[in-house]
Structures are given as structure tokens and as C-alpha cells.
Amino acid sequence: MPVKEYRTPVSNKPVLIGNEAKEDNIIFAIESSCDETAAAIVKNGREVLADVVASQIKTHIEFGGVVPEVAAREHLEAVNLVIAQAFEQSGLTPDDITAFAATVGPGLVGSLLVGMNAAKALAVAHDKPFIGINHLNAHVCANYLDSDLVPPFVALLISGGHTQIIQVKSWDEQSIIGETIDDAIGEAYDKVARLIGLPYPGGVNLDKLAQSGNPYAYKLPEAKLKNEFDFSFSGLKTASLQLIQKLKKECDELPKADIAASFQENVTSTLFKKTKNAADRINAKTVVLAGGVAANSEIRKKFFALENKGYKIYAPKMKYCTDNAAMIGSCAYFLTNNISSLNVEVFSRMTN
Ligand code: KG4
Ligand code: ZN
Fold first, then answer.
1. Measuring CA to CA, which residue among 318, 320, 339 is closest to residue 139?
2. 304 with 175, same domain?
3. Which of 35, 183, 235, 238 is the most exposed place for a label (fewest CB within 10 A)?
4. Do 49 and 162 fall within a single domain?
5. Is the pTM above the cut of 0.85?
6. How far apart are CA 16 and CA 340, in angstroms?
7. Alpha-carbon torsion 227, 233, 238, 242, what sign?
8. How remote is the C-alpha of 304 from its chain's centroid?
9. Range of 268's domain?
């Protein structure tokens, strides 16, 4: 079980964080990697004492997607407000906090800087450690919130920027079994949603529309890849575009619900099949969903059906699937390989 010693920036006092720390750990966490400004307070990695999310959806809806410069400016306007609200919600003061954590990457650099600098400033002002968090690790850690999950398990990380099957061997040790070689699944959802005229954010709107469509109306292709656990969604995106163009010519009214349902059936079947095969290959009986697309109704349905076949399935509560700060607070507690230095810089993408 992990525990790590962090140092406070002013007095250099040692602070133990993690499962084996003698005292309760209360982490104040900030997330600002994309289009949500969020602050949360999490006790011992699992108990959420405050959870505040300021969404920028209304701003970006007119552009049909996230505009980085606009996002950074909105984070600046919102960050002090969400911090104040998180303290208010919990009834705690900075003195009660063990450490301040923030996402340092991957994400939009201008946006990340806002949240990270706010957390660093709080850490210095109150002489508490600062902990820099990897956003992808945090998405997986969302499954520890309000739950009894412990490693080992297989995680399917499906978000706007990433699609990975991960073998989580212990709290700190993980390896990637498969990943997308081109588009991320969330990106594919958002692109196809735009093609059928749904507003941003596309994924959740396509999911809703798909409920009223026929999932077998149209056959869309599945990529064949060298590594059977890798994904590719760019061919599917092109095939969807061609189908939509053809149907626009043939039909008076575009059968949007049938297209949405067919697309959803195609991608959820692929994600399900590959993740189950990967779990079986390494004899894992616990499978965990993570990331914004883990909120998808069909993904959840397909995976939770496995519980009748001897598997244990975990997925975060809906509000902890998409970007939030509670998952950052959990990650700061459970993973000991987080970076803790005021010199840590933000980063936009993962480099292997
Ligand atoms: O994890 P997340 O909030 O941000 C990233 O780290 O990327 O994921 C956002 C992605 C977006 O592409 C969004 O369209 C997708 O998650 N998403 C969904 C659903 N809810 C959010 N995709 C499919 N079905 C949903 N219900
Ligand atoms: Zn995310």
C-alpha cells in the first residue's frame, strides 16, 4: 500500500500522504486541463467532501468545439470562484488541508497553467505540499471515489483525447496493452455528432439520440490492426461521412437516430470486445471504465452485463466520468509517483 513523503515549500516540513499515513489526508484538488474549471476536496482518496465544476459548454457551443485561448481566459475568471465554493461546501479552511494538487498534463497548456498556478500559490501561501497530477491517471482513479476498488484490474480509458486498455498491476504500476493509432474515441463521437448536425458536446447528444434509433440500420466498418488490442477510428469516421452524404442525397430527411445508433453499436462493440479479450488474456476478472466516454449508456450496458459471467465491473459515477477535480484528489492520495515540486511545468501531450 503506497505512502509518500512530501515536503512543504516554505518550512520544508515532511508530510506523509497515502494509505499508510497515520493521519487523515485531506487533498484540495484543481482540474483545468480542457473546458471545465473544477475544485474538489477529497478525504483519504475516496470520500468527496466538496466537488465544484464550472463548465464552459455555453461559451464553446457557438464555436462547435473548444477554442484554447477562450478556454484559458474562462479558467482565469472561474478559478478563484470554484476554490472559494469548494471551501464553503466542505466547511473547511486551508489549515485543514494536507496538500494542494492540480492537473499538470496532458491538456491545453494555457488552461493547465491557470489551475496549476492557483494550486501552487495556495500551497506556498499555506505552507502545504503541492502535488502535480497526470490527468489520465486521475481518470482511472475516479473509480476509487466512493468505492472499494483496489488493484489489480484492467482499465478501459476512453476520453476526448485518449483511448487505451491499461493493465493496472498495483497502485503505481501499470502498462498499456492497447491504444488508438489515430483518433480518440471521444473525438470520433464528437466528429460524427457534428456531421449529423448535433450541437457540441457531441458525445452525450449522440448517445441520447442513439436511444431512439436502430443500431443495426447501417453496417459500418471495423479496423483490422496488427496489435489486436489497438484501436483505429479514422476509417470509421470517413465511412460515416460517406454514409451521411449518400443518405442526404437519397432521403428527404436524414435518419439521424439510425445513424447515431449504428455508429454507437459499432464503436461500443469494438471497445467491449477488445477490452474483454485483453482481460481474458491476462486472467483479469476486474474491469474498470474511465474517462468521459465511460458515461455512455451503451458502453455501461455492455460491460455491466459481464457481471453475470463472473467479472467485477467498476465505472465512476456519471459526474466523475467527465473532467472533475475529485479524481485529481484521489490520484494525489493513491499514486506515489506524482511529481511534487514548485518547479514542475505543465505538458500538453504524453511522450513515451
Ligand atoms: O474525459 P473527458 O471529460 O475529457 C478528456 O479528458 O478528454 O472526455 C470528454 C469526451 C468528449 O469527447 C465527450 O463527447 C465524451 O467524452 N462524452 C461522451 C459521453 N459523455 C461525454 N461520449 C459518448 N457518450 C457519452 N454519454
Ligand atoms: Zn479528461
1. 320
2. yes
3. 238
4. no
5. yes
6. 12
7. positive
8. 19
9. 153-316
Grid cell for residue 330: 484521489
Q: Is the CB of 292 under 6 A from ligand 1?
A: yes
Domain count, the chain: 2
Residue 345 DSSP one-character state: -
Q: Which residue has the cell 478525504?
A: 43
316 lines ligand 1 (CB under 6 A): no
Digit-coded pLDDT (tens) for 53-100: 998 777 777 777 778 888 889 999 999 999 999 999 999 999 999 999
Report residue 324 as a C-alpha cell.
472533475
Rg of the chain (C-alpha set): 21
| Cell 465544476 sits on residue | 53
- What is the spatial distance between Cα 278 and Cα 27, in angstroms, rounded to a whole number? 34
Of all protein residues, the one whose alpha carbon is nearest to atom 10 of ligand 1 is 160
Whose CA is closest to atom 20 on ligand 1?
204
Residue 350 lies in a domain: no
| Judgement on whether residues 102 and 246 belong to the same structural domain of the protein | no
Strands 130-134 vs 286-290: parallel, antiparallel or unpaired: unpaired
Q: Residue type at 59?
A: T
* 136: amino acid identity, one letter: L
